[in-house]
Design goal:
single chain, mainly alpha, 78% helix, elongated
């Protein structure tokens, strides 16, 4: 490990843009930073990525660094832990949103009859939406298809919030009736 004066000198020189000083910091601390990241993530590939991200952040933050300890390691370890924690959150979120997570809810057998009925219902709904007046079609598209909130759709169309709410309610009632007729047929 480097001495206190080495870390302070490297930090000051690297903050001034000296790449050789930063390279010295990297060489001195890359292994401990890697093992901190690996300890959090339990993955060599992710740990390597976090090491890179840690040193990129360190390079950016060096000009404002006030070294509180004789070593740069606690500062680098803190950056590494934050980067690893962020990566862990992303990995968990991605794992929860993958198709593997959704497979449990998918039926093992797909019914052709159900697909035909679903297709017929979709066609019936599309035909019914085509019969709506243009403003109602726009309201339906914005709110039901694009997911706009009532207020956002109202602003987009230049009408009041109440107009959007009331007209969308009538459109939904009409479409429910069309769906019920199609199912009963």
């Amino acid at each position: 490990m480097p001495t206190q004066s080495d870390d302070q000198e490297w930090a000051a020189r690297a903050a001034a843009g000296d790449q050789d000083a930063f390279r010295s910091i990297y060489r001195a601390y890359v292994r401990p930073v890697y093992w901190i990241a690996h300890g959090v993530l339990s993955s060599a590939t992710d740990a390597e990525d976090i090491v890179q991200e840690t040193f990129v952040v360190a390079w950016r933050k060096l000009p404002g660094l006030r070294l509180a300890s004789p070593s740069l390691l606690p500062w680098l370890a803190t950056i590494c832990r934050f980067q690893a924690a962020n990566r862990l959150r992303v990995l968990r979120r991605d794992r929860a949103n993958t198709t593997d997570a959704a497979d449990d809810s998918l039926p093992a057998i797909v019914s052709v009859e159900d697909q035909v009925i679903s297709s017929a219902l979709a066609e019936r709904i599309t035909a019914e939406v085509g019969l709506l007046d243009p403003l109602d079609q726009q309201i339906f598209r914005l709110c039901a298809v694009d997911g706009y909130a009532y207020r956002a759709a109202a602003e987009q169309l230049g009408v009041s919030h109440a107009v959007v709410r009331n007209r969308l309610s009538r459109v939904r009632t009409r479409l429910r009736g069309a769906v019920t007729e199609a199912r009963d047929a």
